[in-house]
Amino acid sequence: MNSQVELRLNSKNIGPKIEVVCLGEALIDFLPAHAGQTLQEAGLLRRVAGGSTANVAVGLARLGVQAAFLGKLGDDPFGHFLRDTLLANKVDVSQLFLSNQANTGLTFAWTDPAAHREARYLFYRATAADRKLEAGEIDQNWLGRAKILQFGSLMLSVEPARTALYTALACARAQGLLTCYDVNMRLPAWPDHASARTDMLSLLDSCDIIKLNRYELAFLTGEQNLEKGIARLWQPPCRLLIVTLDREGCYYLSNQAEGFAPGFAVKVVDTVGAGDGFMAALLAQLLILGNTIFQDKTALAQVCRYANAAGAITTMRAGAIPALPTRRQIERFLKVMN
Q1: Spatial separation of the C-alpha atoms in residues 130 and 132, rounded to whole Å
Q2: Average pLDDT, stretch 216-236?
């Protein structure tokens, strides 16, 4: 994509307003009913709506952004629960497809007390409906009404979802949308690490914004050193690269600005969805401030601090979608932390 593409403030296409389209996965998370338990210890599990891009869509909606989810679910009780959850959070589901050929994906998640309550996942989604989205189901006119296309890497792991992602990305680039890539690495979805790395790297030259964590950076570049890893990954047309650093905060790099935004010390319940809360807040601020954040170091630092706050709040409550904050909650949190 041309690195000079500007965030469009208006859309000429007719139809309900859309600001961000989140393309990819929505699934059911089952978590221990009592926070802090491992999956092995838990006698009871609770069901919550989840999936990285669905989480981002809800996170955006809670921050006042007109978000849409583009993807496929099973025409089953879990799929209807997910669709109802998105609707209840005012996410546009006009391009959410229900399939009677595949079931909704399931994930079991818990936190690891030995690893700072980091999230751990067990996936049951090898034949899930979200992997069945087809290129022919991408409505280019509908997608063209948006300003940003946000997506992750998981669709790359299998056809026909892989081709659907490439189709949507090509459409977004052709119509001048900003493209935002949250790597969100889930290695069990691929047959081997080499093919996973190749697939994930294949998207880098099509993205304006790239967000990944330190472990994903090390996996993609082979570098444990943060600065060396970033130097290897950075390439045009990327306009903003962000590496999240767990409790420490995040590192950001654009063509005109570079820096570190410290995190917040909070009592962590679990980290499920924290990165998605971060992403939603980042995009919400981008829509408010526009393209200036790519050049203005002060503005970019403030945006990253805001996103860090959203991620921190998400870790203070159990679950992904239930834990995602509103704009007022982030503002109150930042006032207390000043």
Answers
A1: 5
A2: 94
DSSP 212: E
**8 A C-beta contact, residue 184 and residue 201:** no
Domain boundary assignment for the chain: 20-337
**pTM (2 d.p.):** 0.92
- Residue 259: both structure tokens together: 């820096």
Q: Which amino acid is at 258?
A: E
Bridge partner residues of 70 (DSSP):
23
Distance between CA 144 and CA 157 in Å, rounded? 25
Tell me how far CA of residue 159 lies from CA of 98, 190, 281, 290, 306, in angstroms. 18, 12, 31, 35, 36
Angstrom distance (rounded) from CA 88 to CA 71: 17
Give dist(CA 259, CA 224) in Å, integer.
19
The fold of the 20-337 domain, in CATH, is UDP-N-acetylmuramoyl-L-alanine:D-glutamate ligase (3.40.1190)
Counting residues of the chain whose pLDDT is more than 90, the rounded percentage is 74
* Residue-wise burial string across 193-221, b where 16 or more C-beta atoms lie within 10 A, e elsewhere: eeebbebbeebbebbbbbbbbbebbebbb
Which residues have a Cβ under 8 Å from the Cβ of 218 and sit 6 or more positions away? 224, 229
CA distance 137 to 98: 12
Q: Is the peptide bond before 113 cis (omega within 30 degrees of 0)?
A: no
Predicted local distance difference test score (pLDDT) of residue 120: 79
